[in-house]
Design a protein that fits this description.
CATH architecture of the largest domain: 2-Layer Sandwich
Largest sheet: 5 strands, mixed
Number of domains: 2
Order of helices and strands: HHHHHEHEEHEHE
Number of strands: 5
CATH topology of the largest domain: GMP Synthetase, Chain A, domain 3
Shape: globular
Strand content: 15-25%
Radius of gyration: 17 Å
Helix content: 40-55%
Structural class: alpha+beta
Length: 209
């Protein structure tokens, strides 16, 4: 796969976090990690239109660069460009785990064992997402991971780990270097805790602007 195309789609899917239903977003990321570009080209533009998710100019360019080479319908792609500003996230985040998470968090333990000291991985952090005010609408784990390479494949791997651990619609945000964090990620980062550090170490920390 052309790495530029892969990176365009990965960055687009990062920017769609918090705006696209979890059950769709994790699947799109899974397909990207597996290189299923034809499937993404058929389904992603149609899903954006179905759920009325408008793209801004930069997101639209990422969609064009990522999917037109793989046969996406040009009319559907062009229809995703919105005229209004992208809606800010509806979510709030907390650092503290909800009461239903055991004092020994098995997911965090497994992530620590899997990613601590791993090549290309910097920081691994987690936050808890709420719909509306904190404590309302349940809580969902959001992983925030910095990686210097292989972001789509690492995303797919971590999604599979979380699904095995019981999260059917995992939220895994693998951030490439020099990526301008959207508001969703900045909010999650501000209320996150460190899980572990990979071999890329402190030189690749998540920083909220």
């Amino acid at each position: 796969m052309d790495p530029d195309i892969e990176q365009s789609l990965h960055e687009l899917l990062l920017r769609l976090a918090g705006r696209t239903p979890d059950q769709l977003l994790w699947r799109f990321r899974d397909w990207l990690g597996e290189g299923a570009m034809g499937t993404l080209a058929r389904t992603l533009p149609r899903s954006l239109l179905k759920h009325r998710i408008d793209l801004d100019q930069s997101e639209y360019r990422l969609l064009v660069a990522g999917l037109i080479p793989h046969g996406a319908d040009w009319h559907q792609v062009s229809s995703t460009l919105g005229v209004d500003d992208v809606t800010e996230t509806r979510y709030t985040f907390t650092q503290s785990a909800p009461e239903w998470v055991n004092s020994v968090d098995s997911v965090s333990v497994l992530l620590h064992a899997t990613l601590r000291g791993r090549a290309d991985v910097g920081e691994v952090r987690q936050s808890w997402r709420h719909l509306g005010a904190a404590g309302e609408g349940g809580a969902k784990r959001v992983l925030l991971v910095t990686a210097t390479a292989g972001q789509p494949r690492l995303t797919g791997e971590l999604q599979r780990v979380l699904r095995v651990m019981g999260d059917e619609e995992p939220s895994v945000e693998v951030i490439p270097p020099r990526f301008d964090l959207p508001g969703y990620h900045r909010a999650a980062l501000a209320e996150s805790e460190l899980v572990c550090v990979g071999a890329a170490g402190a030189g690749h920390r998540l920083v909220a602007a």
